[in-house]
Design a protein that fits this description.
It is a single chain. It is built from five helices and seven strands; from the N terminus they run E-E-E-E-H-H-H-E-H-E-H-E. The protein has a five-stranded mixed β-sheet. It has a two-stranded antiparallel ribbon with strand order 2-3. Helix 4 links the parallel strand 5 and strand 6. The N and C termini lie close together (11 Å). It binds zinc ion.
Length: 160
Amino acid sequence: MAKIKVGFGFDVHQLKEQHPFIMGGVNLQHTSGAYGHSDADVLLHAICDALLGAANLRDIGFHFKNTDDRWKGISSLVLLQHVMVLLKEKGWGIGNIDAMICLEAPKLNPHIPAMQANIARAAGITEDDISIKATTNEQMGFIGRQEGVVAYAVCLIEKI
Ligand SMILES: [Zn+2]
């Protein structure tokens, strides 16, 4: 049996009114959006951290410093492509990714197939190997007040 490892990732971003909202590489066209140094794609950041963690390659802040102008406003799909290069250098390929987004609004279900397609293309995997789920926070806490958005991801990697 090939050697396998698991990884876990978490990310959180503030929501600001009249700000673009990019999630899984999809522009959500909402009244507010996630704020951060890159495109603030909370889903992709959690996935990148899960992949880096599984391969014991530190974390997203280590590789993509938020003081580095190269990453300012960049699409996080490019960060994911870079993470895949790092994994392949260590001989790892993705088994599967499972992610969960916690957000009060807008509804994400209609956008999930497009997010899966974007992530599959950037990571060089099939859409069946990337699961994306979404839940609200039942109107509680900072997520419930629509002050922020959170994403979690786990992944399995295998020696190729
Ligand atoms: Zn982030």
